[in-house]
Design a protein that fits this description.
Shape of chain A: globular
Number of domains of chain B: 2
CATH architecture of one domain in chain A: 3-Layer(aba) Sandwich
CATH class of one domain in chain A: Alpha Beta
Oligomer: heterodimer
Radius of gyration of chain A: 19 Å
CATH architecture of the largest domain in chain B: Orthogonal Bundle
Strand content of chain A: 15-25%
Helix content of chain A: 25-40%
Number of strands of chain B: 0
Strand order of the largest sheet of chain A: 6-7-8-3-9-10
CATH topology of the largest domain in chain B: MetI-like fold
Distance between the termini of chain B: 47 Å
CATH superfamily of the largest domain in chain B: MetI-like
CATH superfamily of one domain in chain A: P-loop containing nucleotide triphosphate hydrolases
Order of helices and strands of chain B: HHHHHHHHHHH
Number of helices of chain A: 10
Largest interface: A-B, 28 and 23 residues
Structural class of chain A: alpha/beta
Largest sheet of chain A: 6 strands, mixed
Number of strands of chain A: 10
Structural class of chain B: mainly alpha
Distance between the termini of chain A: 32 Å
CATH class of the largest domain in chain B: Mainly Alpha
CATH topology of one domain in chain A: Rossmann fold
Helix content of chain B: over 70%
Number of helices of chain B: 11
Chain lengths: 285, 309
């Protein structure tokens, strides 16, 4: 770790790799423990295109980390490394590692099954994608995949997850209706409930509000702020105000690299790098 | 800056000229549609008129006979129904499994490409070729006889490419984000296929199966090749028996005839009276096909109602 000479990384990233260790921070308050770290992560689409170039970045436990940057900068690609979504398509290749704490599992290792990774790290997509099944079955699916058959346990988890996604009161009397009949904002909260039902350690949000109206967006943002009390969140957003509103840490990415990573306040008010400042202030991107 | 805009009158003239193509195309389209439709209606009405006198209840309950007035299609429609049952029972599982494998599991390489090209080409192979293959393979090599099961297997081979292609099309129409949603909660490939891919592609698969069956139901050449009888005055053994285990599969090995063969046989008789029988049988065959297509449309509508992305 110490030998790393990544010029764009910030001091917080060079903290100890020990699980639970406090990383040194530029700000006064001690940084919360690490939940995950990407170390020298490069990613290739096929053999031609290097979409990520040696990305090193920490993810702090029970905090929201936002990835911002112009279109095509690699932020979604980076996010989808965390649940090995890229494994679904042939020809993609990772280099480097993403270590998940506290057990120090390298999520990208060849001997780690992507299914195991997805059982620990869940995801909410850009466009709400409920299954054309009932609301109940949508939420219960992650549990069914894990072989849960006990009806009481399923009922309990479905209610808990729907409450956690602030959707329970709206749907409790129609759990057997098809999920795709809900409004866009409700569908996205249903997808959040689905991702929540399996008690993930990290939740990934890939521009979760870009297909939603402002009111639905506000409710999702509020929900994210609520969720971080018990789960680590990584969110990609196009909307800088959203990053400023919901996140504790922000990474600015450009052309497949993390240009700057710091506390959100620092990134928005006194960024260290000129490129970050240009992007934040709208001179670029 | 160059202005291309003109006066309102010029703009209206432009639109009117551009719209002339709409009129021309609509006219051509209606003519094309009319040719197809009129031909079918003319054929069908002519056949109906010829066969009308024979379309009586006894026509369905009588065996063929030397006297045209007493001949019926009992053995033909029973044969067709049983052969279609075997065809569906064989072609659906094989075709769906092959389509699923190619779409979800097969590695994308040149072997898969060759298999794909071959399947598409198989759909265009003349049916007589399937008949010859079946004669050599099922009748002689496997010794399955000139039976209902041989006919069912032959027609299953014939419609297999249709079922495979329909399955793959149906699977491809499932949005990638639904698939990703399933994988994202930790589903394995098989769980995704079983819980999502198969149920969501079912309407499309069923449509393909029934389109294939409508083709198979009218096939004559391969059935003649494997040696279906043209005159048969008994029915295959009943599938349900009075004694344990109450089910019998002896009918699979029975000799048989089917509707198109019965028709063909009657048309080739010199006696004019048999031609009316052929027309009546043809009318019924058309209705059987229409009924199957209607079933496909209804099933698709029913199953698609709850599948929205």
């Amino acid at each position: 770790m110490e030998a790393r000479t990544q010029p764009t990384t910030h001091a917080t990233m060079l903290g100890s790799a020990q699980p639970g260790a406090k990383a040194p921070s530029a700000s006064d308050a001690p940084a919360p423990p690490l939940k995950a770290e990407s170390r020298d992560l490069s990613f290739y689409y096929g053999n031609k295109f290097k979409a990520l170039k040696s990305v090193t970045m920490p993810v702090h436990e029970d905090r929201v980390t936002a990835l911002i940057g112009p279109s095509g900068c690699g932020k979604s690609t980076f996010l989808r490394c965390f649940n090995r979504m890229h494994d679904l398509y042939p020809g993609n290749r990772y280099e480097g590692e993403i270590v998940l704490h506290p057990d120090n599992t390298n999520l990208l290792a060849d001997d780690v099954d992507p299914i195991e990774v997805r059982m620990r790290v869940s995801m909410v997509f850009q466009k709400p994608n409920p299954f054309p099944k009932s609301i109940y079955e949508n939420v219960a699916y992650g549990l069914r995949v894990r072989g849960v058959r006990n009806r009481n346990l399923l009922d309990e988890k479905v209610e808990e997850s729907l409450r956690g996604a602030a959707l329970w009161d709206e749907v409790k009397h129609r759990l057997n209706e098809v999920g795709s009949n809900l409004s866009g904002g409700q569908q996205q909260r249903l997808c959040i409930a689905r991702a929540l039902a399996t008690d993930p350690e990290i939740m990934l949000f890939d521009e979760p509000t870009s297909a939603l109206d402002p009111i639905a967006t506000a409710s999702i943002e509020e929900l994210i702020s609520e969720l971080k009390k018990k789960v680590t969140i990584l969110i990609v957003t196009h909307n800088m105000q959203q990053a400023a509103r919901v996140s504790d840490y922000t990474a600015y990415m450009y052309l497949g690299e993390v240009i700057e990573f710091d506390k959100t306040d620092t990134i928005f008010f006194k960024p260290r790098r000129k490129e970050t400042e240009d992007y934040i202030t709208g001179r670029f991107g | 800056m160059t202005y291309i805009a003109q006066t309102p009158d010029q703009i209206r003239g432009l639109i009117a000229r551009a719209k002339r193509w709409d009129v021309i195309f609509v006219t051509l389209g209606i003519i094309a549609l009319g040719i197809g439709l009129l031909t079918f209606v003319a054929l069908f009405v002519d056949m109906l008129a010829d066969g009308w006198a024979r379309l009586r209840p006894e026509f369905f309950t009588q065996f063929p006979s030397r006297r045209a007035g007493q001949a019926g299609i009992l053995s033909a429609w029973v044969g067709t129904t049983l052969v279609m049952l075997v065809t569906a029972a064989v072609a659906v599982p094989l075709g769906v499994a092959a389509g699923l494998y190619l779409e979800e599991y097969a590695p994308k390489n040149w072997v898969t490409d060759i298999i794909e090209i071959n399947i598409t080409n198989l759909a265009g192979v003349p049916s007589i070729v399937y008949g010859l293959l079946a004669l050599g393979l099922f009748v002689y090599a496997f010794g399955l006889g000139q039976s209902i099961r041989t006919a069912g297997l032959t027609l299953a081979l014939l419609i297999l490419p249709v079922v495979i292609v329909a399955t793959r099309e149906a699977i491809r129409s499932i949005p990638g984000m639904i698939r990703e949603g399933a994988y994202a909660v930790g589903a394995t490939k098989w769980q995704t296929v079983r819980d999502h891919i198969v149920p969501y592609s079912m309407p499309g698969i069923l449509t393909g199966v029934i389109i294939g069956m409508s083709r198979a139901i009218g096939e004559t050449a391969p059935i003649i090749t494997i040696g279906a009888l043209t005159f048969i005055a008994f029915l295959p053994p009943a599938p349900v028996t009075a004694n344990f285990p109450f089910l019998s599969f002896e009918w699979l090995t029975a000799p048989f005839t089917v509707m198109p063969i019965q028709m063909f046989n009657w048309t080739s008789r010199p006696d004019e009276a048999f031609h009316a029988n052929a027309a009546a049988a043809g009318t019924i065959l058309v209705f059987m096909t229409l009924a199957m297509n209607g079933l496909a449309i209804w099933l698709r509508y029913r199953l698609r109602k709850n599948i929205k992305w």
